[in-house]
Structures are given as C-alpha cells and as structure tokens.
C-alpha cells in the first residue's frame, strides 16, 4: 500500500467554521495502477511525468518508485488529458485537454518551473465537438503548432487538420478528410528546422483510397504524396540530422505490408529498413523513438514485439511477446529514455507501464496506485473489526483497516473484455468478514454470500434482474437478510427476505412493497423494525414487512423525478436520522416520523459520527448534474460546509464511505482515475490543535498571536511560508524561517501556507489580535 500526501490549495477553507487541517492521500493498491505517456524530465535526474486514465498529470522524483499528483485538469466532469509530451526545449509539458461531448478541447502548455499553464490553444473547430487525434509543436518556436482533429457528423466521423504560426491567433485549415478521399490521418509532424515543412501520415479511407505520406513545403498550402497506398502511422526525425526521417506502417488488416521506412533526403524518397517482423493480429508499428542523449540508440514499439538498435539503425534485435499478458508488453504507446542513463527506458503500453534497465531487452511492471475504482464501496466497523471494500476491474479489494493489507477478489484481467456491468458488493453490518456479491449477466443474475471476505462463496439466489441495490441484516437473526433488487425501471423493484441459517435449505420469501420504486438503503434495528426509502418516501415496518407505515412528513418537496439515495440512523442518538436525496439532506429528530430539510443540492450519501454526537459528513457524486464534493457538519446537520471539487483536485467518483475518530473523519473515495483516495477532515472546531494530537504534522503558536507567530513541523524543516487574507490575497511570503513577525498585520483571521523541505504543503488558520 502506498501513501503520498498531495498538495492542495485550501484558500476557500479560511472561514471560521472550516476544518483547521485537511489531508488528501492516494492509498489504493499498486497492483492495479495504470498510467500512460510516461516521459522523463530533460534536466532533473530520475524525474518522470505521466497521465492517469482521467484528468491528472502525476510525477515521480525517484525513477518511478513513488508518485505524486502534479496537475489536475478542472474543466468539468469527465475531463481527460491525452498525448502528454515534453516540449522541444524540455521546459514544459504539453497535452490535449478534452471534455467529451462538449465544445471544449484545446492544447495546453504547462510550464514546469512555475507550475502554471502558460499557453492554451483552443481548437478552431471546437463547435464541431472535435477532439485531438495528434499534434506537433515546432522545435524552434512553440507558437507554431500543427493539430489533427476528429469530430462526429451524425453516425460518422470526419477529420480536419489545422496549422498556426502565431500562437493560435490565426489558424489555417490544411487538410479535410472529405477533400482527400475520406482518408484519416494517423500522425502529424513539423520538420525540426523548417516551420513550414509539414508531414502527414495517412491511414484508412472509405472510398478505396488508403495511406500515403503527404509533405508540404509551404505550411500546408500544397502537398506532395510519397509512399502512396501504404498505410503509415508514426513519424520521427533523427535528432542529429533532420534529413533522416523514420516512418512506420499502421493498422491495415493486411492491405499494407508491415515495414519500417527510412529517408535520408528529408522525405524525398524512402527505403525499407530490413527488420523481420513476427506475425500478429494488427501488425502495426506504434512508436519510433530515438534516445536524444545517445542518438545511435533507437527503439521501435510494435504490436507484440520490440525492436532495438544500438548503432543508429544499421542492425536490429527483436524481442517478441507472443502471449497477450496484461502484466507484460502488449501494444506499446510511448517510450522515454532516461537522460542520465541510456539503459533505462519507460514504456507506456496498452495495459500497464513497463520499465527496463537494460535498454529494452527485459521489462518489469512499474506499479503505481492510480487506477479506475468503479462500483460501490462499503465498510464494516464493529469493535476491533474494520474492513473496507472498494471496486476495481469488475471485482473488488478487501482492506483490513487494522493491518492495511489489501486482498483482491473477482478481478477481471485487463485483456478480458466484458459486457457485464461489473460486480456489486455489500458488507454485512452485523457479521464481520461477511460480504454479499451480485453479478448480473444476460443468462441471469446471482446473489452470493461469503464469510471470508470473498475467498469462498455460496449462492443465495438466482434471479433475473439487473441490480442489487440494498441489503439489511436482522441483528437478532444474523443469517436472515432483506435484499432489494431493481431493473432499468422503477417498477421492477423487488424485496426478498432470505433465510440462510440452513445453507442447504435457503428460504426466500417475497415481501410485498407499499410502493414500487428504487430502494437504496435498508435499516433494521435491534427490535426488528425495518426502515427504508422507496423512491421519494420513507416506510417502516414492525412485523417483518407484512404491513408498512409511511413516514414521509416533510418530504413533500420531492416529486416523481427525485430519489432518496441513502438513509442513516445516528448511532449515538436513536431518535436522529438523516437521508440524502436529489433535493438535499433531510434530518429527523423523532425516529423518522417527521423530516426537516437542511440542504437543497443533490447529495448521494450521508453518515453520522460513531464517536462524537453532532459530527456528520456527506458526499455529492459525479453525475451529469454534479461534480464530486464532500460536505460536513458539526451541529447534527443544522449547518453544513462544502469541500468542492477543485479543493479535491478534480476527482470523479460515485462511491465513498467514512471512518470517524474523536476529532476527524476520513472519507474513503473510489475515484475514476486516482484509485482509492483518503481525505481526512479535522472536525475540531474548538481551535487549532497542536502536536499533542499524533495525527497533526504542523503546529503554529501562539494562536491567537500579536507580534510573532511560530511554526513547527514534525521532523522536517520549513522551506517557505505565505500568509493570505480570508479573501485569498497574498499578504506576505518568506523563505526558510519558522518565526514570523506579524505585528504589522491588521487584526483578524488569516490563512498560513507552509511548504516543507519535501515540497509538501500544509494550510492552517490563525487569528491576529
């Protein structure tokens, strides 16, 4: 398990009722990490950049041993970063910033030294809902950019290619698939020493014309075709001689013979490089990469093999990977040489990133904690037993929260395609290590129980339905549960009582519901009383579901298009309940008889503290209508504060659960591209805690202060300190000091930002008297 503290900008946390300290950690198992476009820094030894499956750039400062989040793309739910590259001069990262099904798409330039976006290039055809297919900056001037785009037209796709020489102020359309036999481009390039010499490698068309290399000497006004009829993809220039150009063939399904081509005259003519390729399914060359610091070293990534030359391409050695092993090489996407060690290469492949310390001859999986955690998340807490279950790769991982050990179950290998929606799992709230799993398929669905976290399972029920939406256990009959199922329509909801006290004679009883709508929570107390939301109403039963009472007074604001997503009882006050809904959070102080609305925005779950009465937390999930956010209250839900998506580094998620202690709550979040995330909120509103709380990493004192403010960090030195007003304005910034003279500040509340010598950043509030 890997934990890395992530720098957050908490300027919005300055208000007096906000938490005094918060921490964001990525803690998921490294057995599922997937990152792409791995690229070495040109100047800093062993520093590597990569992108996640979503909207984050991550960085490693120790040659891939550990990773941190460097940049978050905050343009809306579903945003993604593609095609990460190091700029020609090595000072910046460039990438495509994309928000699907919208008009937002642009190329961005991230300056490494200042950690800011310094240039943006919005696509000239954004209104076409276009996305970047490939792009290339001119080596000598990053105002010169060549971009190929694809975009939907009805059920079809078209492509347009654009060129700018003035930083995107003006664009020229230089290629349109409809004007060139519907042939799409696979790659674009600008000559390293001539900004007007452009190269387009062409792929497949729909009119019987395919392939060819288009070359222009006048910035795309006129084209010459070379290698006609040959489907081409990657194009690369020799870093020591731009007249030496290398091109590989692309996916052709047999219409083009697989070859690597070389030109020694700037693209006027090409010859075949004599490499014998092993037959595969796609037979395509994806990447041709020179080692910039040792140009005699070349690596070529093919579908199922890697070709390496140590003498500038005169001779080659092939390394073949016949089996499609998802933990080894298959379909290379990028390669990057370590500038300080020519034998070290990172390879981005279709499944997992790979590292070689012998020039590419052997590879090992480079692990990271960034993966897609989808499906539901659940928690068991009872005494010393503490278990977390989070989804990954159509299965789930059980984490023993006492030991931190992760154990995977039902994981589907990355090279197995599945039409199934994945597995749903719920932890039994009475019996430790018991979990219910539900798998749906076209042949029917199966509900199973396991008493060892999933190692062995017994089927409880075979049913024709799509969803397993809730489960509740009778505390005095721990072998008896209520299970709710649903289909695509609300009226397909079913509730079943399942008695498996005799595992060889399971008794299933249908429960007649007072209404047919989705059920997302079932609560059964020690007396056997059942409470559960059905659609937008709450019902209770004291006779095992034979009769039902409607307990929905105060919920009339909700209509048929709304939904209750969660229902919880305060473990420290049985009369207090809370529900999360599309109309916000509602609280009951009389055991669910009457409800009062406390918030108005969409909320998907809610939780009470198990330690301190009054502390609560909730979450809004990523959806078409919302971005992920956390909410918390310290007064039993009367007032709420929100930690918005920007403060949470732009994560997307549809699952979360919570563990409370005396002064804080840790939210476990299953994110779409960062894996398992932990966000800890300090709920101590009495004042700023000090090192007496063992979880605190920073202390400031005195607080309030008049003249001098002292800063202490645990076992590390202070590198930089900045003070901000409550409006976010920077007032003071100093280096390498832990004692600040604040006598000139006006009385009031301020935020202090402290960066330590490891570049971790902490935020605290303080009061100037």
TrEMBL record:
| Transmembrane portions of the chain | none
Q: Which CDD domains match?
A: Sialidase_non-viral
Keyword Lipoprotein belongs to the record: no
Indicate the segments forming the Sortilin N-terminal domain, all copies: 537-645
Q: Which Gene3D superfamilies does this one have?
A: YVTN repeat-like/Quinoprotein amine dehydrogenase
Q: What is the lineage of its organism?
A: Bacteria, Pseudomonadati, Bacteroidota, Flavobacteriia, Flavobacteriales
Give residue ranges for domain Secretion system C-terminal sorting. Answer: 700-766
Instruction: Give the organism the record lists.
Output: Aequorivita aurantiaca
Q: Which Pfam families does the UniProt record give?
A: Por_Secre_tail, Sortilin-Vps10
For this UniProt record, give its keywords in alphabetical order, as a comma-separated list. Repeat, Signal
From the Swiss-Prot or TrEMBL record, give the protein name.
Answer: T9SS type A sorting domain-containing protein
Keyword Repeat listed? The answer is: yes
Q: Where is the signal peptide?
A: 1-22
């Amino acid at each position: 398990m890997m934990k890395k503290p992530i720098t957050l900008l908490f300027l919005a946390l300055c208000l007096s009722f906000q938490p005094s300290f918060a921490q964001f950690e990525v803690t998921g198992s490294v057995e599922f990490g997937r990152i792409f476009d791995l690229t070495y820094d040109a100047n800093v030894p062993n520093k590597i950049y990569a992108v996640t499956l979503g909207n984050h750039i991550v960085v490693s400062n120790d040659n891939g041993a550990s990773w941190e989040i460097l940049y978050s793309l905050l343009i809306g739910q579903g945003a993604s970063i593609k095609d990460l590259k190091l700029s020609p001069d090595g000072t910046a990262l460039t990438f495509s910033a994309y928000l699907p099904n919208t008009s937002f798409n642009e190329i961005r330039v991230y300056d490494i030294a200042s950690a800011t976006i310094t240039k943006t290039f919005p696509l000239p055809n954004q209104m076409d809902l276009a996305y970047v297919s490939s792009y290339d900056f001119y080596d000598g001037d990053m105002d010169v950019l060549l971009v190929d785009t694809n975009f939907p037209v009805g059920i079809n796709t078209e492509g347009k290619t654009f060129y700018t020489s003035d930083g995107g102020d003006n664009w020229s359309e230089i290629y349109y698939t409809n004007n060139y036999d519907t042939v799409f481009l696979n790659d674009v390039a600008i000559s390293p020493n001539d900004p007007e010499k452009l190269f387009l490698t062409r792929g497949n068309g729909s009119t019987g014309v395919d392939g060819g290399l288009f070359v222009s000497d006048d910035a795309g006004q006129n084209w010459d075709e070379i290698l006609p009829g040959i489907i081409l993809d990657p194009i690369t220039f020799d870093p020591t001689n731009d007249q030496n150009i290398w091109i590989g063939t692309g996916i052709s399904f047999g219409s083009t013979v697989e070859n690597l081509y070389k030109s020694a005259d700037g693209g006027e003519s090409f010859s075949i490089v004599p490499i014998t390729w092993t037959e595969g399914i796609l037979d395509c060359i994806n990447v041709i990469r020179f080692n910039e610091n040792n140009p005699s070293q070349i690596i070529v990534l093919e579908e199922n093999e890697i070709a390496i030359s140590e003498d500038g391409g005169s001779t080659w050695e092939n390394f073949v990977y016949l089996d499609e092993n998802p933990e080894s090489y298959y379909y290379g996407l990028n390669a990057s040489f370590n500038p300080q060690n020519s034998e070290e290469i990172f390879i981005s492949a279709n499944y997992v990133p790979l590292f070689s310390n012998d020039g590419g001859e052997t590879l090992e999986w480079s692990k990271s904690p960034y993966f897609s955690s989808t499906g539901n998340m659940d928690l068991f807490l009872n005494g010393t037993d503490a278990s977390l279950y989070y989804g990954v790769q159509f299965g789930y991982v059980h984490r023993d929260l006492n030991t931190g050990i992760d154990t995977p179950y039902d994981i589907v290998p990355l090279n197995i395609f599945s039409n199934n929606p994945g597995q749903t799992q719920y932890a039994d709230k009475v019996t430790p290590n018991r979990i219910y799993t539900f798998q749906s398929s076209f042949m029917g669905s199966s509900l199973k129980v396991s008493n060892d976290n999933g190692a062995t399972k017994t089927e409880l029920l075979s049913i024709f339905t799509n969803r397993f939406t809730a489960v509740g256990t009778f505390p005095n009959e721990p072998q008896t549960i209520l299970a709710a199922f649903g289909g695509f329509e609300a009226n397909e909801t079913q509730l079943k009582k399942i008695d498996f006290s005799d595992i060889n004679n399971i008794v299933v009883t249908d429960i007649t519901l007072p209404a047919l709508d989705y059920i997302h929570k079932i609560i059964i107390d020690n007396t056997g009383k059942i409470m559960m939301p059905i659609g937008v109403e709450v019902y209770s039963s004291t006779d095992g579901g034979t009769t039902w009472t409607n307990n929905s007074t105060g919920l009339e604001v909700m209509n048929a298009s709304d939904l209750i997503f969660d229902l919880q009882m305060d473990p420290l006050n049985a009369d207090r309940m809370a529900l999360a809904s599309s109309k916000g959070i509602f609280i009951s102080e009389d055991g669910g008889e009457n409800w009062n609305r406390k918030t108005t925005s969409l909320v998907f779950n809610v939780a009470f503290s198990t330690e301190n009465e009054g502390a609560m937390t909730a979450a809004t999930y990523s959806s078409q209508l919302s971005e992920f956010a956390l909410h918390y209250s310290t007064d039993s839900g009367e007032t709420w504060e929100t930690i918005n998506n920007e403060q949470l580094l732009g994560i997307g998620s549809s699952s979360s659960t919570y563990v409370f202690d005396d002064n804080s709550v840790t939210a476990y979040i299953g994110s779409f591209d960062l894996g398992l995330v932990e966000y800890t909120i300090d709920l101590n509103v009495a004042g700023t805690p000090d090192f007496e709380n063992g979880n605190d990493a920073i202390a400031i004192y005195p607080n309030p202060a008049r003249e001098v403010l002292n800063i202490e960090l645990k076992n590390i030195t202070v590198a930089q300190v900045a003070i901000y007003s409550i409006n976010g304005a920077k007032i003071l910034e100093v280096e390498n000091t832990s004692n600040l003279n604040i006598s000139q500040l006006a009385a009031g509340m301020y935020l202090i930002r402290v960066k330590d010598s490891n570049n971790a950043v902490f935020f605290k509030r303080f009061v100037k008297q």
